[in-house]
Design brief:
The protein has two helices and two strands. It is of the alpha+beta class. It has one domain. A two-stranded parallel sheet has the order 1-2. The longest helix has 21 residues.
């Protein structure tokens, strides 16, 4: 039986997709950061504000490293989800 603190794979995937989305936004605005990532390396994000996901991703990185591959760690905070506000504007009646 899994321990309570063990993250499920589907949870980790969803959270990592959010993180990689934010990283890619940053990379599009700052393309020089990608020059620091060797083409043969795997990118692993270590979220500073989600210890459980950080530990999960470290285990993934350990598996990659055990296969003799290179890993580049990206340390970042999880993105804050903004709530859009909608405002309906119509033309005034004459």
């Amino acid at each position: 039986m899994r321990g309570r603190s063990e993250m499920r794979k589907d949870q980790a995937v969803k959270k990592n997709l959010d993180l990689i989305n934010e990283f890619m936004k940053y990379a599009f605005e700052n393309p020089n950061i990608l020059e620091k990532v060797p083409p043969e390396a795997e990118l692993v994000i270590l979220p500073l504000d989600d210890l459980e996901l950080c530990e999960y991703n470290k285990k993934v990185a350990d598996k990659i490293l055990s296969q003799g591959k290179k890993v580049v760690f990206v340390r970042m905070k999880r993105p804050k989800i903004s709530v859009p506000k909608l405002e309906l504007v119509s033309t005034p009646s004459p």
